[in-house]
Amino acid sequence: MPPMHERIINDLILKERQLWTALTSADPAHAVNKLCSPTANFLFPNKDILALNGDESGKADKKNEEKLQEVLAPPFHRFDDFSLMDVRTMVIDLMAGSLTYRVSAYRGKKEYNATGSTTWAQGSDGEWRVVVHQETLL
């Protein structure tokens, strides 16, 4: 059995790939929602900060949820393929970690290059969920 930190790192990399698979699909909202904590925040290029379901106090905020669903509505990123490079993981503790990386994605001849960072937290159910996700165009 690999050491605990190695297992956490492997789990986080797997989850990040699942997140990007969802983000690059034609209709990402459902899959992204499943990967997120109830108050996840997203920082996409040229967009306001978006919260999944809650405000900073953790209370449900329908307005933010609707904004995020609008942003994730087709055709969100919708790429044919993506590649994560220079992936760096940081285990914060046994139930939290962060990844930083460069991402290249393609749709036809259109290319998307950015840096990204996602912080994940493990819930009491053992599932890793997005706390904060950010992309910065290069």
**SSE string, helices as H and strands as E:** HHEEHEEEE
Q: What fraction of residues sit in β-strands?
A: 35-45%
The CATH class turns out to be: Alpha Beta
Q: From the coordinates shown, what is the CATH architecture?
A: Roll
Number of strands: 6
Instruction: State the strand order across the main sheet.
Output: 2-1-6-5-4-3
How far apart, in Å, are the first and last alpha carbons? 39 Å
Characterization of the model:
By secondary structure, the protein is of the alpha+beta class. The protein has one domain: Roll (Nuclear Transport Factor 2, Chain: A). The chain is 27% helix and 42% strand. It has three helices and six strands. The protein has a six-stranded mixed β-sheet with strand order 2-1-6-5-4-3. Strand 5 (110-122) and strand 6 form a beta hairpin. The model has no long low-confidence stretch (mean pLDDT 87). This is DUF4440 domain-containing protein.
